[in-house]
Amino acid sequence: MTPAPRRRPGLIEVLSAQGGETFHRLLRGRQLELRDFYSARELGRRVPSRTPWVVFVGVSMFDSRKGALTVARRRPAIVAQLALPAGRGINYAKTASEGHYTIWAAAEDLLAAVVDVVRHP
């Protein structure tokens, strides 16, 4: 019996931040922390079987606050808005569902890019 072919992830277009691109990140706790901008790898999680490595080592964000809220499992939800700066080696790509992006950057650079934090009931 021949095994079924493994599903290959599609190609993604990786872009470099040019300055001002806006993304939204659902925060884990009640306060903004550096840890909120760690990748799943940096948090010591295991790679899910169908998750491409390149997504696993990035940080999940959305192009709208509403998009971030759709994945919130608890309320109140806290969402940070980031404006990415140019020249910091920050890259991003559209991945997964509509409005979802993966961002590759140092957590410190992402924390510094926060321009607003909103708590949603």
Our count of helices gives 3
**Major β-sheet strand ordering:** 1-5-6-3
What is the makeup of the main sheet? 4 strands, antiparallel
β-strand amount: 25-35%
What do you see in this structure?
There is one protein chain. By secondary structure, the protein is of the alpha+beta class. The chain is built from three helices and seven strands. The longest helix has 6 residues, at 65-70. It is globular and about 35 Å long. Mean pLDDT is 86; it is low at 1-8.
Could you write a compact summary of the structure shown?
This protein is α+β, with helices and mostly antiparallel strands. Helices cover 13% and strands 28% of the residues.
Write the layout of secondary structure elements.
Elements: E1 15-16, E2 22-26, H1 53-56, E3 59-62, H2 65-70, E4 77-83, E5 91-94, E6 100-104, H3 107-112, E7 114-120
Antiparallel strand pairs: 1-5, 2-4, 3-6, 4-7, 5-6
Provide key terms for this protein:
single chain; 121 residues; alpha+beta; three-stranded antiparallel beta sheet; 13% helix; globular; disordered N terminus
